[in-house]
């Protein structure tokens, strides 16, 4: 995890914010430097406080997480925002992805998974709670009688292999070990996959891959 990762939590439930902050502050090289109870307050804070990573609730008063994320990413494209979700809010996740989040976590995430998410996102990667990723699978894989969208993107055999492993949650380093190639090569294939599919990031890439039947889930 990058040194002194400055974290902000945006959620309208104070008890949840304080509990999450307590866990994050116990992590190595990470500190919660700001909190906000809604999207409007968040936008005001980030103009005054340097923040690296934001955990963003979706449904909040005054301004929700979708609008707040979209506005923040337009002004601060380097900001890393992660959606916080509860079961029942899955329909909003696509909108959060389109707004520019780096991943999405269930609010009941365990400490170890939270730290892993912070580690990966601080390194410029993405993280998605497995249960929420399964939502996209259910959403886009159609019943047999319906016609699923077909992609006209031509991927190499190696790109298909790497895309499948990305969908299964493996990191670039783990993929490199599995395929006996360098991590730099994996990074190059990931960049190629994102470019070929017209995606902005890995979250968009996985959404595209599931929607077009490019991976087995």
Chain oligomer state: single chain
Given helix and strand content, the structural type is alpha/beta
Ends distance:
29 Å
Strand content: 5-15%
How is the main sheet built? 6 strands, parallel
Write down the secondary-structure element order: EHEHEHEHEHEHHHHH
CATH architecture annotation name of the largest domain: 3-Layer(aba) Sandwich
Number of domains: 2
Overall geometry: globular
Total of DSSP H or I helical runs spanning 4+ residues: 10
Considering DSSP H and I runs of 4 or more, what fraction of the residues is helical?
A: 40-55%
Using only C-alpha atoms, the radius of gyration works out to 18 Å
Instruction: Indicate the CATH class of the largest domain.
Output: Alpha Beta
Remind me, CATH topology of the largest domain? Rossmann fold
Averaging pLDDT over every residue, what do you get? 84
Number of DSSP strands?
Answer: 6
Return residue spans where pLDDT drops below 50 for at least 5 consecutive residues: 141-149
Q: What is the CATH superfamily classification of the largest domain?
A: Response regulator
Q: What strand line-up does the widest sheet have?
A: 2-1-3-4-5-6
């Amino acid at each position: 995890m990058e040194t002194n990762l400055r974290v902000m939590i945006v959620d309208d439930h104070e008890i949840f914010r304080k509990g999450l902050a307590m866990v994050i502050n116990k992590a190595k090289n990470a500190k919660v430097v700001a909190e906000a109870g809604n999207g409007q307050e968040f936008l005001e804070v980030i103009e005054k406080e340097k923040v690296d990573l934001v955990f963003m609730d979706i449904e909040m008063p005054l301004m929700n997480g979708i609008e707040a994320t979209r506005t923040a990413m337009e002004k601060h494209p380097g900001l890393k925002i992660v959606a916080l979700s509860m079961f029942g809010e899955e329909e909003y996740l696509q909108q959060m992805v389109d707004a520019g989040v780096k991943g999405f976590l269930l609010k009941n995430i365990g400490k170890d998974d939270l730290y892993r998410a912070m580690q990966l996102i601080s390194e410029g990667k993405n993280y998605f709670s497995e249960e929420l990723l399964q939502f996209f699978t259910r959403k886009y894989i159609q019943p047999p009688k319906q016609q699923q969208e077909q992609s006209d993107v031509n991927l190499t055999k190696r790109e298909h292999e790497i895309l499948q492993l990305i969908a299964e949650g493996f990191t670039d380093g783990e993929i490199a070990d599995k395929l006996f190639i360098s991590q730099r090569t994996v990074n190059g294939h990931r960049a190629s996959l994102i470019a070929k599919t017209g995606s902005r990031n890995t979250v968009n890439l996985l959404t595209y891959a599931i929607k077009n039947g490019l991976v087995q889930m």
